[in-house]
């Protein structure tokens, strides 16, 4: 149970070279990193979705179908 | 050295996760390479989480003219998303887009960009464009951002940018954040001797602890360049040199200072060791401890001959006591 935040963080970081530092973190420290990563991802996704949506309005009508097809396959 | 480099890494990680530096204080005792590896993995995870959408955006941008891509980028996407898409565009097209954007917006993008993801784009940017963006970053004191690009810019461009940075303090702060010791060596090597002297003088005279940045810079370069910078330090006047020793003492930077001291010329070492601030029991004890911790007592030994009798004896006594304490522990 105590290692759950560390395992969560390890999972979010994905495959790759083992990160020894993770084993030295206290659960609350791993949790801080994990939650901050989640928050940053959510910020990115929200901003990206909004920008994609709005960008359609600026594309000339003639190009819009092709543009839409690439963005929303 | 590693204590200072660790702090630089913590600052970078805090920025990536939008945290305050003190929130990551628990990493202060960690190895710097481990913190860097952690930051790189977090950055990759962040980037990968929106990669599929970003790839689609990059593909869609091929369908519209460059000017429109620039307008949409600046007005709708904003710096964060433009930074994420940059590395997914064909480098030549990304440069075309960049040249249609204002230095101010490109500076915003630079703050968010992971330069490794766009190394080809950065390498293709004309020097004039890089200098304009650097000027913008400089006015914002975005030293960390500027340092992150050093690894990816040519020496010619770096020299041009460095020649436009008039503020020695800014130059030092940028150097503090440069990750690759080889690149740091090159950048310092590009500075004219008088400029380097000015940087060291500025650091020595700074009351806000800039000396730790200077020391960090010195410990990461080759012994030859370190010796040159150490000699420039030793050439400071008594008051400035005393301030340096006090800063070393206050910041508990004796390990780093010893690395610089051992790289200095004999004349420079003699001058530093003769300084009264360097002969206090506190300073001598810290020096002996640092020599012991770094296992370089043998390098310190030749310097004993440059010291006057009393402090030399004190230093030897301190070291002898440390050695016997360690033996007793064992």
Total count of strands of chain B: 0
Span between termini of chain A: 41 Å
| Structural class by secondary-structure content of chain B | mainly alpha
Count of DSSP helices of chain A?
4
| Quaternary organisation | heterodimer
Q: Provide the low-confidence segments of chain B as ranges.
A: none
- What radius of gyration of chain A results from the CA coordinates? 19 Å
Protein chains sharing the most extensive interface: A-B, 39 and 38 residues
Give the helices and strands of chain B as they follow along the chain: HHHHHHHHHHHHHHHHHHHHH
Residues in β-strands, percent of chain B: under 5%
Question: What is the approximate shape of chain B?
Answer: elongated
Structure description:
By secondary structure, chain A is mainly alpha-helical. Chain A has a domain at 24-73. Chain A contains four helices and no strands. Chain A has helices at residues 4-13, 20-24, 27-55, 64-71. In chain A, helix 1 (4-13) runs parallel beside helix 3 (27-55). The longest helix of chain A is centred in the middle third of the chain and has 29 residues, at 27-55. The longest helix of chain B has 21 residues, at 66-86. By secondary structure, chain B is mainly α. Classes of the chains: A mainly alpha (73), B mainly alpha (330).
